[in-house]
Write a structure and sequence with these properties.
Bound molecules: pyridoxal-5'-phosphate
Order of helices and strands: HHHHEHEHEHEHEEEHHHEHEHEEH
Structural class: alpha/beta
CATH topology of the largest domain: Aspartate Aminotransferase, domain 2
Largest sheet: 7 strands, mixed
CATH class of the largest domain: Alpha Beta
Distance between the termini: 71 Å
Number of strands: 11
CATH architecture of the largest domain: 3-Layer(aba) Sandwich
Strand content: 5-15%
Number of helices: 14
Strand order of the largest sheet: 1-7-6-5-4-2-3
Oligomer: single chain
Shape: globular
CATH superfamily of the largest domain: Type I PLP-dependent aspartate aminotransferase-like (Major domain)
Radius of gyration: 22 Å
Number of domains: 2
Helix content: 25-40%
Length: 411
């Protein structure tokens, strides 16, 4: 009997290799369009999956359950659509989705580190990853972890490498402090010694193409701009080889990692508008950054895409754009209490952590930055700003009035 839902529709053809980024965002990850005509893929939820025969299950096992629909944990068509799109965005070949950005960080590290191994982690790493390294890798698993200054080059990396160094972890720019790393040089030095290179690319998105710069596994918190609407928690690991993909996928599954199909579906929807959101937010973020840089209360703006900012030359060399998350360091005469007053006086900026959504955020970072390789010397109290999709003129007017609180003015 013919399935009445089945019809051949030409508009759902997969894009070709020459299609540009915005085009690919619209047309990839749309299984089923050609079958039933709906532009968006169906949302599959489920634990039980029925297979046609006992042999079908054995066949799936022989293929390591790679995109076979046999068991809930192994993923379904909704996961695969998102995974295929994400692998494309980052220029890799395969992707594994997990339950949060942090789960992706941890899965990547656990995939390669065993008892007795050594791992190098930048001092500017996302705080919860540092906690995972100290409390899980070191304390419970006998892995040695050293923190290194994120700004080092290959020459300064060499003496930090040990015979048992198995992973070089990168995050560029760094969380809260926005140090840009020399990824190609560091990755090349590590790879020459057979060391795996893992990178948290949440800030870089598609603006930084990790596999062109020697990265083996690229990690993203999809919770941020990919989802883009502050309504999901999700993480991804993209690889450029089947071997690395199997390593991270096996580790994810051994730990029972599962991503909610609802969150995958929402993220797929969010990604359709990623390019226009980011183009707008990049421009608005830079406009706000320039406003901050011109204010006498501000010591420095930590925005890698701003000329003159720390890391700008490396950003210019390696990135094709920027998101709208950056830091602002106030002159030391403005005490943390005064800066707190300013943040409290903001009308349009919320005080919150998960950036990349449509709403603007301001998060004081003094007191929450840990450094063990070298002391942090920003020169004054810092606030991390995320510029959302509001009109940037309204945001700047809001900052203008809140800055009065820095001087003890009306708050
Ligand atoms: C937010 C963030 C994460 C963690 O993402 P969650 O989905 O919130 O767990 C990891 N790395 C970086 C750089 C982040 O900013």
């Amino acid at each position: 009997m013919k399935d009445k839902d089945s019809q051949q529709v030409s508009a759902g053809a997969e894009p070709g290799a020459d299609d540009r980024f915005a085009t690919r965002l619209s047309h990839l990850g749309r299984p089923g369009t050609r079958v039933h005509g709906f532009v968006n893929p169906p949302l599959h939820r489920g634990s039980t999956v029925l297979v046609p025969s006992p042999e079908a299950r054995r066949e799936a096992a022989r293929h390591k359950f790679d995109q076979y629909l046999v068991y809930g944990l192994y993923g379904n068509a909704t996961h695969h659509a998102l995974e295929n799109l994400l692998a494309d965005i980052e220029g890799g070949s395969r992707c594994q989705i997990v339950s949060s950005g942090l789960a992706a960080n941890c899965t990547g590290l656990l995939a390669y580190l065993r008892h007795g191994d050594h791992c190098l982690v930048p001092d500017s790493v996302y705080g919860p990853v540092r906690a995972f390294c100290d409390r899980v890798l070191v304390e419970r698993n006998g892995v040695a972890v050293s923190y290194y200054r994120p700004e080092i080059g290959a020459a300064e990396l060499a003496p930090l490498l040990r015979p048992n160094t198995r992973v070089l972890y990168l995050e560029s720019p760094g969380s809260h402090t926005f140090e840009v790393q020399d990824v190609p040089a560091l990755a090349a030095a590590a790879r020459a010694r057979g060391i795996k290179v893992l990178m948290d690319n949440t800030w870089g998105l598609h603006f930084f193409q990790p596999f062109r710069h020697g990265v083996d596994v690229s990690i993203q918190a999809l919770t941020k701009y990919a989802g883009g609407h502050a309504d999901v928690l999700l993480g991804s690991l993209v690889t450029n080889s089947e071997e690395d993909w199997h390593a991270v996928r096996e580790t994810a599954l051994l730990h029972g990692q599962y991503a909610s199909p609802d969150d995958c579906w929402l993220t797929l929807r969010g990604l359709r508008t990623l390019n226009v959101r980011l183009q707008h937010q990049m421009a608005a973020g830079l406009e706000a950054a320039r406003w901050f840089a011109a204010r006498p209360e501000v010591l420095q703006v930590l925005h890698p895409a701003l000329p003159g900012a720390p890391g700008h030359a490396l950003w210019q060399r390696d990135f094709s754009g920027a998101c709208s998350l950056f830091g602002v360091v106030f002159r030391p005469e403005f005490t943390p209490a005064r800066v707190d007053d300013m943040v409290g006086a903001l009308r349009l900026f919320g005080i919150g952590a998960s950036w990349g959504g449509f709403e603007s955020l301001a998060l004081p970072t003094y007191g929450s930055v840990t450094r063990t390789a070298a002391p942090l010397a920003l020169g004054g109290p810092a606030v991390r700003f995320h510029i959302g999709l509001e009109d940037v003129a309204d945001l700047i007017a809001d900052l203008e009035q809140a800055f009065a609180a820095l001087h003890g003015g009306p708050a």
